[in-house]
Design a protein that fits this description.
By secondary structure, this protein is of the alpha+beta class. The chain is about 35% helix and about 25% strand. The strands form four sheets. A six-stranded antiparallel beta sheet has the order 8-9-18-17-14-15. The longest helix is centred in the middle third of the chain and has 54 residues. Keywords: Coiled coil, Hydrolase, Phosphoprotein.
Amino acid sequence: MKRTNRLSPVLAKPTTNRLIRRVLIVSPSDAQRRILSVPLRRARYEVLEAGSVADALQLCQRIEPDIVLSDWIIPGAAGMESGLDLCRAFRTGERSRYGYFVLLTSAQDHEDIARGLEAGADDFLAMPVTKQDLLARLAAGERILRVEEDLRSSNAQLRAALDRLRDTQAAIDRDLQEARKLQQGLVKQRSGRFGPIQLSLLLRPAGHIGGDLVGFFPIGDDRVGIYALDVSGHGVTAALLTAQLSVHLSGSADQNVALRAAQTGTDAVSPAALAHFFNNMMLEEMATDTYYTMIYADLNHVTGRLRMVQAGHPHPVLQRADGSVQPLGNGGMPIGVFERPVFDEIDVILEPGDRLLICSDGITEATNPAGRLLGDDGVEAILRTNAFLGGHVFLESMAWSVSEYCRGERQDDMSAVLIEYLAPAETVPLPRR
């Protein structure tokens, strides 16, 4: 409840719903206290009186006054005590709300005002005090108290809102933690072996959930489908789209769009045809501004032939058995942007000892503190440096190198597929005795 605004405490009578303020008058003079208390009680203030600093401090501790009117000099048991001492004690004491302190002085000079303000006084009132001056100063003090009360109420509401926000954020974090587990479960197999071909997958979201997806599925007896997707963004929208795409690329033949043709007795769809299918699905069935990049590969693990489509994804990097490194593809267009996209088709033969790395832009576009991208040159350097490593050991080493390059400030999801054509084991002859 708030006191109604008044143009003047003298011209307008207090309304009945005005908040009753407690005013403490501190003066060793009974007459002085009576002169001040009479007009205050008529103005409907609750008046308390104290004749010493000690009595005033006890009242301040027991009953918190809203306003204190104190003489400058107050004789006490220890001699001449000052209203400044009371003011300092009033300011350092524990209170649930702000109190307005007015010093009564017989003569005001600049030095006294400076000392009073330093002690914590809010205002000064010259004696002898008139009724008009007294009520005017208290009206000014009441405006300050109302502002303080409004601020305190607003702060309380803000704290309550922040508490609710923290509770909501904690619930969201718990949900995202569970969503992360579910999204990690979309990659059912992190590695696979098909004849001499070994596949290894890396999926590392930047936050709780991400927009990257990698995986593979068998196509008949001699082929395997391999995919790497990167949905724009890495929040809830991106995670929901990756979940839907994982259904279309799962190992179940009745759901996997790349295998539907095989159910009719024909070959599985080509990589380029699959990219066009997804592009049409994004434009016709999904009302969203989200798009994604993709590499889909059809690998014959008997012959080593690898047919790929590149749709805006970073260039796959081929490392031959002799250590030479070659980026593949011209880029192609992302999926879900253009009605007549142009995708890049790549056809390459893997030989024993070769390996192919497919990674998302969370790796190629990793940025160091100076703002420099890792780029294709950085990926090539990682391949050369870790030429003696393979499988998940290589992928973890690459992930560590990228994090070190970013100084731990990685902003995007990180995913990769490593395809290795394992060389046959060499026979080591035993020495003759």
